[in-house]
Backbone:
């Protein structure tokens, strides 16, 4: 049996149905978004990781940060009072530099103080430093060279501190592996790209400074 519904009443029913359906869909979307947010915040953030491994922030990590920070402050101050040294643009960035150096050094399994010595000798801790052969950054990595790429051939972003430290620390790790852990020879390979037995006094000065700074700052 068919019942004829007045036209105006039919339109009113359809309007109410559309509003009800829209409200249901809105409620469903809100529920989905809330679920996604809950899952996102309930999952722990991953630790920074590279091919070399995961960085663990523990007491030894903080000791390394303290040692590297003391080394950088000692260099930037250069016998000046803290008030005068604080005028140096690098002074306020020292805690950040120290933590990043330790983080990247540990990612690639190299001594953070050794990385800091290279940064000091290569660039005086200046992120925008450029070498005579277009080397760039804290650790003076050559754009387009072997050191500027990771183990999969992907280039590091040498315009950033993280990219510079990752490239330099990874290259230092390769040099240490090539030279079977001999730090003096690895520094020669890092500086001259001529293998473990490259000639030059610069790397030897770096090695002597590294040994002195380990003895001075590692006890902190």
Residues:
């Amino acid at each position: 049996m068919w019942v004829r519904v007045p036209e105006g009443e039919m339109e009113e029913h359809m309007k109410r149905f559309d509003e009800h359906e829209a409200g249901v869909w809105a409620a469903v979307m809100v529920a989905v978004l809330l679920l996604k947010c809950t899952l996102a915040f309930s999952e722990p953030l991953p630790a920074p990781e590279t091919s070399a491994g995961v960085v663990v922030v523990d007491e030894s990590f903080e000791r390394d940060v303290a040692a590297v920070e003391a080394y950088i402050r000692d260099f930037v101050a250069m016998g000046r009072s803290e008030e005068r040294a604080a005028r140096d643009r690098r002074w306020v960035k020292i805690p950040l530099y120290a933590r990043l150096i330790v983080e990247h050094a540990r990612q690639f399994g190299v001594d953070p103080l050794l990385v800091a010595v290279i940064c000091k000798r290569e660039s005086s801790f200046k992120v925008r430093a450029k070498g005579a052969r277009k080397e760039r950054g804290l650790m003076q990595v050559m754009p387009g060279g072997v050191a500027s790429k990771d183990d999969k051939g992907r280039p590091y972003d040498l315009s950033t501190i993280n990219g510079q430290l990752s490239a330099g620390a990874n290259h230092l790790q390769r040099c240490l592996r090539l030279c079977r852990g001999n730090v003096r020879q690895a520094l020669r390979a890092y500086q001259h790209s001529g293998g473990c037995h490259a000639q030059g006094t610069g790397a030897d000065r770096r090695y002597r400074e590294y040994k002195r700074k380990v003895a001075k700052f590692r006890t902190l």
